[in-house]
Amino acid sequence: MIKNTKNTVEIFSITLKILFLIFIAPSAIAQNNSSSPYSRFGIGDMQSSGFTETDGMGTSSIALHEPFNINFSNPASYSSIKLTTFEFGATSNFTKFSSAGFPSNTTNTSNISYVALAFPVIANRWGASFGMMPFSNVGYKISDADTIGGTTENYLYTGSGGFNQLYFGNAVNICKSLSVGANISYLFGSIERQNTVEFPSLTSAQNTRITNTIHINDLTYKVGLFFTLDSIKVDSSKIYGPKHKLNVLQCTDEALVVANSKDTLWIRNKLIQLKRFEVMSNTSAGITFANERDTLYVNNTLGKLKIDTALDNIKEVKIKSDRSFSVGLTYSLNSSLHATTDSLSERYLSTSLGGVAIHDTINYTSGIKGRITLPMSLGFGIAYKKGQRLLLSAEASIQDWTKYTFYGQSDQLANSMKIAAGAQISPDLIQAKTFFKSITYRFGAYYSKTYLDLKSTQLDDIGITLGCSLPVFRSLSKINISMQAGQRGTLMNNLIREQYIRLGLGFSLSDRWFIKYKYE
């Protein structure tokens, strides 16, 4: 009998995920939300390239390459993907704006922050990923007033929109310690900026409004590299032996998943009962496990894992420990993006109901071609991992925003710099018998000199982060939660200070897709 029901459910699940990624995600992500007056400069607020998981670790991600997580920050990480993984997330921003001499106000914005899919093309050698996320957001409304010759003039500056990126990336393992990868991102979207001059004291005066809408459609490129060094255990007698244990990644009624540093073994439980596998022992020799009908073994080898009928007597050999050290590098190339601008200048009268009545069009020009130059960026990260229990990560990145130009004109931008660090503490999956003991915890911090240089003051952005992963019953999937609390800007020199809390919610779904089930 063929397992038609399970196969149908899996195909239906795959279809829903792909349809979501292709049709629903673009329209949802395109609704970019920002409320910062600082998004007036450059191409708006640049969005984080991290996902919810790494957002909880101080946004540090350049040196991370996990088997069931997508790391867009470093494309070289895709070769580490063990199972097909689908991730999507959303964020909510709560921001308080303060300025000296003015009352503070608060805003809240929410939007989908990423949708991505990654899968192994050739296990342990070649991985790929594609997805979509915001690249920059614009959203501001700034008003000012002046009196000239006894006439009051009100100035209003507004902006909305943003750019999105649709990416495709690949990564390959050059050798067991070195992997390289690259992302090609297609940037698209539009930003509308509007400047208005009104004369409220002159009811018959014609007000002026200029609207510029910028569109881009072009490619950007990013390359990444990973180097991983596994440490060596040395004892006083200079004898090296298998003193570490295999990692049990999952133990449910459906399957037992066992891993070493080179391989992952997926063992399905063929009994159709809610009776999980029982791990009877996990020693340096290997794992003994059983269901109600049989007892089998997984020997603790240094290479490919398989199911055996007995534990082998392993000879003392030189082995690697469960500790590893990773280095990650990323480089984004200079990009000269093709852009077009539509410019509309018009005069209008204000109506008694608060609306506008267009009087005439001063000028309308469509499709003004030009280029937007985005500068190169360079990132470096390190990570230390001890088994599946502890992960430490730190990184630094720079970007030369003095080279930014818009249609050949520079802006008030400076070179940016960011440092970030974080940690992840995971449970012992063998000992974790309850839901709360299976939760993974994260924390971190970051500091950056932003590219905004206003009134001879380069703005800082500093924050702390917390996060966790909630396990999904009987699977390797999880629900990720993150929180960032930080501050950007200052009250000095009549600038604006932003104090924000950013909440993130992400879903990571990992499974084997396109499995051909056997007859029974």
Provide an overview of this structure.
The chain has 520 residues and is mostly beta strands. It is 6% helix and 58% strand. The chain has 2 helices and 25 strands. It has helices at 4-29, 52-55; strands at residues 45-46, 84-99, 102-122, 126-148, 151-173, 178-198, 207-232, 247-251, 255-259, 264-268, 278-282, 286-290, 295-299, 307-308, 320-332, 335-350, 356-374, 377-386, 390-399, 405-406, 416-425, 440-454, 457-471, 478-489, 496-511. The strands form 3 sheets. It has a 14-stranded antiparallel beta barrel with strand order 2-3-4-5-6-7-15-18-19-21-22-23-24-25. A 4-stranded antiparallel sheet has the order 11-12-13-14, with no helix packed on it. The longest helix has 26 residues, at 4-29. It is elongated and about 95 Å long.
